[in-house]
Automatic annotation (TrEMBL):
InterPro entries: NAGPA. PANTHER family: N-ACETYLGLUCOSAMINE-1-PHOSPHODIESTER ALPHA-N-ACETYLGLUCOSAMINIDASE. It comes from Acididesulfobacillus acetoxydans. This is Exopolysaccharide biosynthesis protein. It comes from the Bacteria. Residues 143-323 form the Phosphodiester glycosidase domain.
Amino acid sequence: MKHRIRFSWKKFAGFIGFNIVFAALLAPFIVFYGPFEALKVMAVGSINTSRHPQVVRAFLSTAQIDQIMHEYEDALGVNTESHVAVEKVTTDPASGIEIQNIQGHSFKGKVMLIKNPKRVKVAVTDQLGVTGERVTDFVKQTGAIAGINAGGFNDPNGKGNGAFPEGLTVHDGKLVYNSAGNATVHELIGLDSSGKLFIGPMSASELAAKHIQEAVTFFGPTLIENGKPVVVGDGGIGIAPRTGIGQTADGTIIFVVIDGRQPTWSWGATARDLMNVFLEYHAVNAVNLDGGSSTEMVYQGKIINRLWDIFGERYIPTAFVVMPK
C-alpha cells in the first residue's frame, strides 16, 4: 500500500528560511574570497566609498583594499581628461537659474547655474540633535526654488539620521551649530556678505571678521583654488555619487550632482572627475561636498537627479537652497 506524502508548509518555509540565512552568511565570502574577480572589484569599489566602508574592512586588509580600488578605477577607465558633454535642459531667465545635463566617461549628472550668489542660503534642520530632513523638505519649508545637499554630519551609533552637522554651521550670519568648539575646522564652505564663495580653514571666532553669512563644514577635498586645479591623481576618495559647489569669476554659483553606483546608468565620479566638470564651467573656486547616498538636486519641488539609495531621500542636517529673486 502506498503512503501519501503530506506536504508541510511549515517545513517548506523553514527550508526556504534556512537557505536564505545560509546564503546571506556565505555571500560575503563568495564576493571577497571567491573566484569572481569582476564581482569583487565592483563590490569593494562601491562599498568602500559608501557610508559603510567597515563592511569591506572586516574582510580585507588596507593593502588589499587599496589594490582593488586601483583595479576598480582602471576598470572604469578613470583618466585625467577634462572633456564633459553638456546638454542644456532648462533656461528660465525669470528664475535666474539654468540647468544642464552632463556626461563624462563613467558618469552622468546635473549642473545648476545661479547668477546671483546672494540667493544661495544654508537651510538647517529644525530638529538639530534629533533628526535631519530631506532636501525636498528644506526647499519647501524655506520657500526656495531649488536645493542640493550640503555639509557633512556626525553619525553617532550608526543611525545616520542627519541630526548632528559636522563642524560649524552658519545661517544669516549667525552660528547655529558648533561641534568644533574653539578648534579650527579644516574645510569651511560658505558665502560671505558680498556673495563670494569661501573655502578653507576657519574657527568660530573668525566668522564675524570674515563676514561669513552662510556656511557648512565638510572635509572636501578642495578641487579648484583661485583658478588653479589642485586635485592630485584621482583625488584619493574613490568613485561614488558626488555633490559639489563652485563659483565663476562673475559670481555665478555652480551646483553639481553626479549620480553613481548604478552600473546601467552612472558609476559615479572621482574627485578629479568632479574637478574637471567645474573646470569646464570655468570655476575659480570649487569644492567637493557630502556625496554618496546624500547626493541630490531638487528643482521646483522635484528631485531631478537619480538617487542611489533604494529607500529614497536621505535625512541630512543641511542643504544649500536657492531663494526666489
